[in-house]
Amino acid sequence: MTYKEIRHDEAVKTYIRQADASLEALEYTEHSFPHVSRVAEVAGDILQTLGYPERDVELARIAGYLHDIGNLVNRIEHSQSGALMAFRILDKRGFPPEEISLIATAIGNHDEGTGVPVNPIAAALILADKTDVRRNRVRPKEMSRFDIHDRVNYSVTRSEVKIDDANTVLQLRLTIDTEVSSVMDYFEIFMTRMLLCRQAAQRLGLQFQLIINEQKML
Predict the structure, then answer these.
(1) CATH class held by domain 3-216
(2) Across residues 129-147, what is the average pLDDT?
(3) Residue 34's CB: how many other CB atoms inside 10 A?
């Protein structure tokens, strides 16, 4: 079964839609199809750029697409519940145990606090997920209702994940409107995520760099 088939699976779409509806009720940032599609593509692109087998690229994309369905159960420990949901979804659709294991492990390890880049697919998923910072993920329409997470996400006018030609450095390049949020605000809420990204990059043999407004921060 392919990433394209998973994307067109109606049950999977329902789980993603309802998981995001729960987060919308909490006014969390968008975790619906734009987010999971971007994470899927970036995770696959990272492994493809590094020369991993095409099936590993496909599994990374599937893991990226399914990684946030656990929010359907609860935001707390959503990576673990999401891994169990993905296990059932993929098992019912005839995936081999070896592939289910890799995808479930990646999903179960994608969130900061409990996540560890235990294999390349998990590492690629972490990097793709934690680098998706952009203003159109913000829910409230009025800036007066923004919390610090909203301000930081809204301040990002450009976001790019790039691997250098030598395949030695992965950069997250951000352009931030400092009139909306300061660079210090970014570090206040995202430092744990950036450190996890550094671990994930190292798992893939890469150095992680954070570039904000053309200045190297990490």
Answers:
(1) mainly alpha
(2) 92
(3) 14
